[in-house]
Amino acid sequence: MNGIKGDWFSCRDDVLALTKQLVNIESIVNTEGEKVIAHALYTRIASLPYFMDRPEQVTIEQTTDDDLERFNVLAYVKGTKTKTNRTVILMGHMDTVGVDDFNRQRDYAFDPDQWMDFLQTEDISDQVQTHLDSGDWLFGRGVLDMKSGLASNLYLLMYYAKHPEQLSGNLVFLSECDEEDSSHGILSALDTLKSWQQEHGFHYAAAINSDFVAPQYDGDENRYVYKGTIGKLLPSFLITGEETHVGSCFAGIDPNYIAAELTRQISYNPALCDTAQGEMTIPPVSLKQMDLKPSYTVQTALSALVYYNFFTHSWSPQKVLEILKREAETAFQNALHTFEQRYRSYCDASGHPYQGIPWKPRVFLYEDMEQMLIEAHGQAFIDHMNQFKQDLMYDETLDIRMFAARVVEEAWTWMEDKSPAIFLFYSSVYSPRVELKGESEDEQRLLKALDASVEAVQPHYEHPITVRNFFPHISDMSFMALSDTKAEIKAVSTNNPAWGTKHEVDYEKIRELNIPVINIGPYGMDGHKKMERMEMTYSLEIVPNLTNQIIKSVLDECS
Description:
Shape: globular
Oligomer: single chain
Low-confidence stretches: none
Number of strands: 19
Helix content: 25-40%
Number of domains: 2
Strand order of the largest sheet: 1-2-5-3-6-17-7-16
Number of helices: 16
CATH topology of the largest domain: Aminopeptidase
CATH architecture of the largest domain: 3-Layer(aba) Sandwich
CATH superfamily of the largest domain: Zn peptidases
Distance between the termini: 21 Å
Largest sheet: 8 strands, mixed
């Protein structure tokens, strides 16, 4: 390799072996497998001679504030080449999504070799067949998302544990659980990172995540690396209608009808894409839409729930609420307008007298609703809702999202005006956006190292390695740094009805660390799908070497 010959690892076979070993361990999120893989990984690292001599430098730690027993694995190597407190974190998650899509081939999901042999007998697409025949693609659950990325990080940790004399500063390895659901892993790991920072004087100069990258469109040949990441919110709407018998449908209004108009207004709407640094998020889309009737009746529903995935690049949680409140008001007005038109048409056709409609659009943020009810009912409302939430905690069937919806539904019963309304709130963890602008010395150094390393590696790989500003998927990168101010992020806690009981995140822990973060991960296709696969040349060779180039550049005091 011209220019980087002495720094280049011939690591394909080693990283491939590590990848297969990790994939062989079934570690589906929210199952016992998360515990199994953590212990296996800890045992592997702790048995290395470096860590046998320094057992305090590797740890397996149970997550905190978590209903499940599962663990993170962390380790660090102190380099001896140059004494400096500069530290790079290599991070990656060890859980995967489930394998229901594999159906009767479930057992093959965790054995790439058997799975690929089986696929040779199946009717698969031409592209998948080409990849399968090439010898350069590995198939199976987790090979792409993201055990090959974790294997790359593990390889680098093992290398520097054997050769600390080649490392300036410090290298921290973090393998976290629960990335695919609620991020208990990374949120728990923040405490350990903070503790190590205080105990060892670590200056966290950069974090490198190794989550997977994929084509952005058909025919896209780019292999992307990302500086920063999208933010992800779950804006939710409880919609109350006016109940009526279906035989007198115009005497009331169905909240499902309003919800449908709200989804028409919000889902797939490019006007709700957030653009920053020339890059655009994908638009929101509905993740659940349902009424809250407990059983069948011939009455229309009293309330409905709908929530949407919402990505951000520059918009704060407060800004998103402001935008979506306007969208909800528009949708409500449109729903009433169409309702009135159809009611008039029905009356004209049937000869029934037109009675008019009594409703007006009403949209409330949860924090405004709560304050209004406190002013109306005082301590009695506060005490009731606190007890209601505590009692609701015993219902293990409720996830965070449904818990929040039930709280809003209960608060609504205290409202004197029961006319139809929309209540807007958040009902899940907020994954903050991270925007790297080069505003600090560490950011400038990391961005410079990234550009220089890509330039050095690119001549030795046939496809373009392209740097983008925002990792486009939900990831634990969001919990390494904050771009939102305290005031902007406050909207998350004041508008999440589950906050303080079912859910809470100390975002100031993230702000205290505030580590510039980038993503260099394996390349492949069909993540979270049955044909999940990764390209081995890029994932097993380019990724660890590109990552290493950045580690050396960030940590070397002469850079």
